[in-house]
Amino acid sequence: MAEAQEKDNFWLWIGGIIVVTIVLVFVLKSRETEHLASDAIQIQKAEVEKTFAKRKTSNTAVE
């Protein structure tokens, strides 16, 4: 009589680890520069507001 063979899950585990690794790389790569962009935008907005404030004060002084 033939013995029952165990199912080999080795390649299933390897495939799962590869998929999880790829997903984590994409998630981390998408969030890589998130902290840089938010600070740069806030600094740029502050500079633009200062420029507009200077223009408003110089325009009212001329009139």
Global shape = rod-shaped
Number of helices: 2
Count of beta strands = 0
Class derived from helix and strand content:
mainly alpha
Oligomer: single chain
Mean pLDDT score, rounded?
A: 83
Helix content: over 70%
Mind describing the biggest β-sheet? none
* SSE arrangement, N to C: HH
Strand content: under 5%
Distance between termini?
106 Å
Low confidence ranges: none
Radius of gyration: 30 Å
Description:
By secondary structure, the protein is mainly alpha-helical. It has helices spanning 10-30, 34-62. The chain is rod-shaped and about 95 Å long. The model has no long low-confidence stretch (mean pLDDT 83).
What is this structure's SSE topology?
Layout: H1 10-30, H2 34-62
Summarize, please.
By secondary structure, the protein is mainly α.
Keywords:
single chain, 63 residues, mainly alpha, 2 helices, rod-shaped
